[in-house]
Design a protein that fits this description.
By secondary structure, the chain is α/β, with parallel strands linked by helices. It contains 14 helices and 10 strands. Helix content is 40%, strand content 16%. The longest helix has 17 residues.
Length: 396
């Protein structure tokens, strides 16, 4: 039986007023916004974007407890509220259809709810290496299978609706926005199984859905970036169709110890905290908010599993020889996950995988989700441009 798909967040009157105030501030001249943000914050030579600094102040006023200090249900509501607050106006697409992925037929356990986005009609010219693969130019479109962030615990297809719409509208691609199973109700490897099944379902149903099977990418942010990297590895490792591109936004790539330097530099104060990550990890791997407690689970072995920490894959050379997909990796300068995202991109590049690394030195962790800001829109535009090139969509 399919799980109930996520539903749109319904903000309170106070939250609507807070969002209007933030949007009014963003509409001010840049000089006024810089004054509102206060003294520039600089770490490792990067200055925090003033609009992001203001957004962090807003969260400080309305956020209350940290996510890891809440119950799972309360934390899910809080993240949904934050996502709504900073999403901006949704991009216009031709349609959004609720679909059910037959997970059982593709290696998962039961059905998986998802949303399928179609771009507005326009002639699409296929260019580059994919030109020969398009049997009927202008009809079969590329597809992006998107996995939301939220530490494998929070987030949903609805919290990332604005991201899916932007990729669809600006990239002129079909987007499959997946509501994979989350912890603690479903611990690892449930999310991995669902992610792999979702990609395989898109490929198996490509003709029916108007998708070019040779141009299906996987993409995601944070935990979703982790799942995208894992899908690219797993489908390459086990044969069969694999993505044409892996787009990894602020991905989790390594949960082994010790943590990277960026965990120490940005442990608190920049949206994602080290305590958040500890809570996500424990909940995802064990179903408990803390590690230990007499659990029989071998945490170190789980952490080193490449389906948890793709940076620790021991068969990388074999994966590259089998055609591990090219990668676009975008990280934030003010993010505990910065260093492991960079390390993953550099590992792929050294191994011979065509890789683009983009370090947004002025951004915090969820930059791809804050489309109300100039920075969020700029980061999205860069990613869309790279995606269009990689998937052979004629430049707009």
């Amino acid at each position: 039986m399919a799980e109930r798909p996520s539903t749109p967040y319904r903000p309170s009157a106070a939250e609507r007023a807070e969002r209007r105030a933030f949007e009014a501030l963003l509409a001010l001249p840049k000089s006024a916004r810089k004054r509102a943000a206060g003294r520039p914050h600089v770490v490792d030579g990067g200055a925090l974007d003033p609009d992001i600094a203001t957004g962090l102040k807003v969260l400080g006023r309305v956020g209350g407890k940290e996510l890891d200090e809440r119950t799972v249900d309360d934390a899910r509501t809080a993240l949904a509220a934050e996502s709504w607050m900073f999403a901006g106006e949704p991009a216009d697409v031709a349609s959004v259809e609720q679909v059910t992925i037959d997970g059982a037929a593709h290696g998962a356990d039961g059905d998986i709810p998802a949303f399928l986005y179609r771009p507005n009609p326009s002639p699409v010219t296929v260019v580059g290496k994919h030109a020969d693969a398009a049997r009927t130019p202008g009809t079969a479109r590329p597809c992006v299978v998107y996995f939301h962030g939220g530490g494998w615990v929070l987030g949903s297809a609805q919290t990332h609706d604005a991201v899916a719409r932007a990729l669809c509208a600006d990239g002129e691609v079909i987007v499959l926005n997946v509501d994979y199973r989350r912890a603690p109700e479903h611990v690892f490897p449930a999310a991995v199984d669902d992610a792999v099944a979702a990609f395989r379902w898109a490929h198996a149903n490509a003709e029916r859905l108007g998708i070019d099977p040779e141009r299906i990418a996987v993409a995601g942010d944070s935990a979703g970036g982790n799942l995208s990297a894992v899908v690219a590895q797993e489908t390459t490792r086990h044969g069969g169709p694999k993505p044409a591109l892996q787009m990894l936004f602020v991905p989790v790539t390594d949960l082994t110890l010790p943590r990277s330097d960026s965990y120490e530099r940005f442990s608190s104060g920049y949206f994602l905290t080290r305590a958040n990550m500890d809570w996500y990890e424990a909940t995802y791997l064990t179903g408990s908010p803390t590690l230990g407690g007499g659990s029989d689970v071998d945490i170190d072995a789980l952490r080193a599993d490449p389906r948890v920490s793709p940076l620790r894959a021991t068969d990388l050379d074999a994966l590259v020889a089998a055609g591990l997909p090219p990668a676009y990796v975008a990280v934030a300068g003010f993010d505990p996950l910065r260093d492991e995202g960079i390390a993953y991109a550099r590992m792929l590049e050294r191994a011979g995988v065509a890789t683009t690394l983009r370090v947004h030195t002025d951004a915090v962790h969820p930059f791809i989700n804050i489309l109300a800001t100039d920075l969020g829109r700029r980061c999205m535009a860069e990613a869309v441009g790279a995606m269009r090139t990689a998937l052979g969509v004629d430049p707009a």
